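Question (not urgent): is this output format expected?
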Amino acid sequence: MARAIWSGSISFGMVSIPVKLYGATESKDISFNLLHSTCSTRLKQVRWCPTDEVEVPWSETVRGYEYAKGEYVTLTDEDFERLPLASKHIIDLTAFVSATEIDPIYYERTYYLAPDERAEKPYMLLLQAMERKELTALATITIRKKEQLCAIRPKAGAIMLETLYYPDEVRQSDVNLNGTKVTDRELDMAFTLIELLRKPFEPEEYQDTYREALAQMIEAKLDGRDVVKAPPARDG
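Got this back:
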């Protein structure tokens, strides 16, 4: 399994379940590097201070919140650590709801929660209880210095954690149909077409055709030697 990105405990009444958090998805996008078009050299990203006219190492950077134009309040890693958030190490289950009550627009990212050694029994207890009741738990978790609302649910013999957007992060629709109406006959035609295309969801049937075409183009360029090489790096 991949490296855990968070470790802590699920708090479930009087039960504490030590767990680790792992990403459940990964991007398969083909990545590219930016090159200088005239010499095909890979470009560097430089943290440049225009005031001191120097390149700034990571060790000399801090986060700044712009409260007025050009005015900042800075926060260090120590400041973030001092935030009074229990969710930094504890996932406290605060409510159980039906999964159908959560609009998909609120879902952000999906993770696996895996039990630590000797925590399999309480983990299985929570998993089976949610499966039989067909319920999803709500909680909060702090990941990468941000506290997030999350949903905890059973799936395929494991407990999943899905981060959720807060209500003020979800935009309201501004679609305006200007009172447009449709007839019953038009609806019947739409129903007929929908039923013709209706089928079970089988994710294996769908492929990323753009990625496949891009990979074929790259292979074709390699076969045809239509490839540019970066010049040797200069010392210093």
